[in-house]
Amino acid sequence: GAVVSQHPSWVICKSGTSVKIECRSLDFQATTMFWYRQFPKQSLMLMATSNEGSKATYEQGVEKDKFLINHASLTLSTLTVTSAHPEDSSFYICSARTSGWSGELFFGEGSRLTVL
Amino acid sequence: AQSVTQLDSHVSVSEGTPVLLRCNYSSSYSPSLFWYVQHPNKGLQLLLKYTSAATLVKGINGFEAEFKKSETSFHLTKPSAHMSDAAEYFCVVSEEGGGGADGLTFGKGTHLIIQP
Q1: In B, what residues contact A, Cβ < 8 A?
Q2: What CA–CA distances, in Å, run from B102 to A47, A54, B45, B47, B71?
Q3: Does any CB of chain B come closer than 8 Å to the CB of residue A110?
Q4: Tell me: the pLDDT tens digits for A30-80?
Q5: DSSP-derived secondary structure letter, B70
Q6: d(CA B72, CA A8)
Q7: CA B86 → CA B15, B34, B80, B110, distances in Å?
Q8: CB contact under 8 A, A103 and B42
């Protein structure tokens, strides 16, 4: 199946700093990618839709100035957590769909962010 | 509108015994249905999917699921559990235009525990 890669897998940062997480589709082009946040022992919560060449679309309640999304190419989307605080600590996952609508999403391995 | 209910938050079985993870769904149209597995600090891996073809779907690692429209169920089974099956399992329903922007609605997850 298609492969989606996330980097870094783990990141620890100090409060007030910014952290960038990358999501790459390795063997296909993805005009749309999705970013999720997962709290401990909970399901995935969709944060935003990353659109290649245009602004991201954020879900209700997600601060767009806190979570900056850039989709500069057909294979790369980045999520930047700005001025991170301990409450931003979480597991962040991206996904992408191959061309057309098949319903199946391919997920990255996730990135564990810990803000001290 | 679509929804997914995973009937058990935790399931514990002994190694070598059958596994049954229950999932009920509601959907306005003809949905696609998926089971994903998530190991600790990892992304979601697709186990199997139903997309209106055969109602009995075989997946990876010996898992299978049966789509029963009359019961609106898509239960996941495996004849013999292995220690490596211990993980979190998510039932997901998908239809174009349904759920979130990604078209998906996630169940809350079932934590599978394998007793030695």
Answers
A1: 32, 34, 36, 41-46, 49, 51, 90, 94-96, 100-104, 106-109, 111
A2: 10, 17, 17, 19, 26
A3: yes
A4: 888 999 999 988 999 999 999 888 899 999 999 999 999 999 888 999 999
A5: T
A6: 39
A7: 10, 18, 13, 10
A8: no
Of A4, A46, A93, nearest to B100 by CB-CB distance is A46
Distance from CA of A62 to the nearest CA of B (A): 14
| A17 CA: distance to closest CA in chain B (Å) | 23
User: 22-81 in A: which are within 8 Å (CB) of B?
Assistant: 34, 41-44, 46, 49, 57, 59
* Residues A116/A59, Cβ–Cβ less than 8 Å: no
Position A20, amino acid: K
Q: What is the pLDDT of residues B64-82, one digit of tens each?
A: 999 999 999 999 999 999 9
Closest CA to A85 of A9, A13, A3: A13
pLDDT greater than 60 at residue A3 = yes
A96 token code pair: 């992408």
Taking the CA atoms of B38, B42, B44 and B46 in sequence, report the sign of the dihedral they define.
negative
Amino acid at B94: S
Q: Are strands B44-50 and B32-38 parallel, antiparallel or unpaired?
A: antiparallel
- Determine contact: A11 vs chain B, CB below 8 A: no
